Amino acid sequence: MASQAIRSYFQLYQSHYKGLIKLGIPVILAQLGQVTVGVIDNMMIGHVGTLELAAASFANTIFWLVIVLGTGFSYAITPLVGKARGNYEMNQVGAWFKSSMWAVLSMGVLLSLVTYMISLFMDQMGQAANVILPARTYLWIISFSILPMMVFMGYKQFCEGLANTKVAMNIVLIANLVNIICNYILINGKLGLPAMGLNGAGYGTLISRIFMAVSFFYVFRRGKSFKPYGEIIATAQFAINDFFKIWKMGVPIGAQLVMEASAFMLSTIMMGWISVAGLAAHQVVLSISTISFMVYLGIASSTTIRVSSLFGENKIEEMRQAGWAAIHLVVLMVIVIGLVFLFLRNQLPTLFSDDPLVIALAAQFIVVMLIYQLFDGLQIVFGSILRGMSDVNMPTLYTFIAYFIVSLPTGYLCAFTFGLKEVGIWWGLPVGLGTASILFMFRFIKLSKRKLTEEISKTNNLN
């Protein structure tokens, strides 16, 4: 009886599992591709010299926060488009495209200016004097890639709102190859070109991102699957209210991602206060966890697409089922990936370091990471469900509470007050992410129940 009840329960979500996986796999592959090319980038720069690697690390830390804000901003597009598509408001879909393009372009210009202004103060950030000049030049070069990157993100998130994730995957994977080839040629001075070293890597990044934007523009204009939308977009009117709605939703989402990234950066700084070996082990485990995070991110992206579409169709019960189906999938993935990490906790760190102390500390961190991964998967999926319901302001407040009121103070207390040292910093992460998961979950339950009650009441009134 019990097994039959369990089987019946999961059969209820079967169609959602298939839909989420189908949408999520291209996103996962694209994200893993970007992580891989980032590792290869660092390997290529590292062979140029230690100074160049340090300069790239410094510049990329600044650039990463800027890109995280821009990426989060663009996430507002998907639920808005998905909701309009689910409600069969095709003229509104076309209007969202025009507003989205102007929104990402304006954000791209703003972020480019912000990056330039930050670069002027790099010598005030306590870095070695010989690192500043190459880091600043490299940052200036890659800052020109912000605008094409934002254009690409505009197309990508719009297409995800249409439940199309494969085009972005294909473009990203090809662009990664373009980046690697350009890096090899420009860094080392091949094909008769001068060796540019670190700057060559910057130009490689710029070229690959221009390629991404131009490719998406071409595919969107010429692709058969997008032809019906081209006709709709051509007749759609730009609406200033839609433009500001994207900004109103996009800025809180971007702020959530920046707060999360800042919390991890601050945990890295605190780790550096304890020991160099701890800092190295911390970076090793963050690198390992990034791989699994990309899997959870793929499921989260597909969740936003599915939830926003069902939300637009006013199929609230199905929307709730889609949300819980995503939670089931991410928990299953956490268990599978977690078991792999647990059994290989002493071997995985050896891929990054030969230092016995670093390996031992990393193995300890991985045990804590298994708990942190569960809550990380839950919070990103619950957050994506809320995003699909166009709920962004309260989750932003919850993110602030989880990271800056709970996670970082807990890590500090565990490490420095309770004497847990390096591993204490890591204990702050699952506590903070667990807080975010619980807050997001109750928010989802509350909003979905309210929407379901409204829908039932509306149906009864019609009858």
Molecular structure report:
The chain is an all-alpha fold and 463 residues long. The protein has two domains: 33-238, no CATH class; 251-458, no CATH class. It contains 16 helices and no strands. It has helices at residues 2-11, 14-48, 50-74, 77-86, 90-119, 129-143, 146-161, 166-188, 198-222, 227-235, 240-274, 276-312, 316-343, 356-388, 393-417, 422-462. α2 (14-48) runs antiparallel to α12 and α4 runs antiparallel to α5. It comes from Ancylomarina subtilis. It is a multi-pass membrane protein. InterPro entries: MATE_fam, MATE_MdtK, MdtK-like. GO terms for molecular function: antiporter activity; xenobiotic transmembrane transporter activity. It is found in: Cell membrane.
